[in-house]
Specification:
By secondary structure, this protein is an alpha+beta fold. The protein contains six helices and six strands, in the order H-E-E-H-H-H-H-H-E-E-E-E. Strands 1, 2, 3, 4, 5 and 6 form a six-stranded antiparallel β-sheet that branches.
């Protein structure tokens, strides 16, 4: 176990249970949804055909759930309401996505909607020269009671 990782671990542990704040609103456009459909080969009509999607209970096209999920890095960037502690990152080599413990697509994101994310650190573990951080993320839809998605996102901060 490296000294940098051990020191960072203690600092990250202080974040457990604290609301990280909320990111900026981000508008989901039909062009973004179409581009995601092209990249993933998922051209289901509810995503790419506004006319046909208008006849569904959604009333129009919706973003792919995986598009919303893939936006988490952007949606959570700069969301921290607490002052950043530079010592957490002393000796860092990289940060990596490790995965998700749980992901639920609660409500569809209608094209044209604005979404934003908030997070709460729920767990921190020391794994050798890495600090594993689990955050409970909620993606909100402007004007909607239910969120677009909730996820337990696991990342690892790797130290040299």
């Amino acid at each position: 176990m490296g000294e940098a990782a051990a020191k960072a671990f203690e600092l990250f542990r202080r974040d457990i249970g604290h609301d990280e704040g909320v990111g900026e609103w981000f508008q989901v456009t039909q062009d973004q949804v179409n581009q995601f459909a092209d990249v993933t080969f998922d051209h289901q009509f509810i995503h790419v055909d506004p006319e046909q999607a208008a006849a569904t209970p959604f009333g129009g096209t919706i973003a792919h759930g995986f598009l919303t999920l893939s936006m988490l890095s952007h949606l959570t960037a700069g969301a921290s309401s607490a002052p950043e502690v530079p010592e957490k990152y002393a000796g860092i080599l990289m940060g990596i996505n490790y995965g998700f413990n749980k992901v639920r697509f609660v409500s569809p994101v209608k094209v044209g909607s604005r979404i934003r994310a908030r997070g709460v650190t729920s767990n921190v573990e020391l794994k050798g020269d890495m600090v594993e951080v689990t955050r409970d993320i909620t993606v909100e839809i402007e004007g909607e009671e239910k969120p677009a998605l909730v996820a337990q996102w696991v990342t690892r901060v790797v130290y040299g």
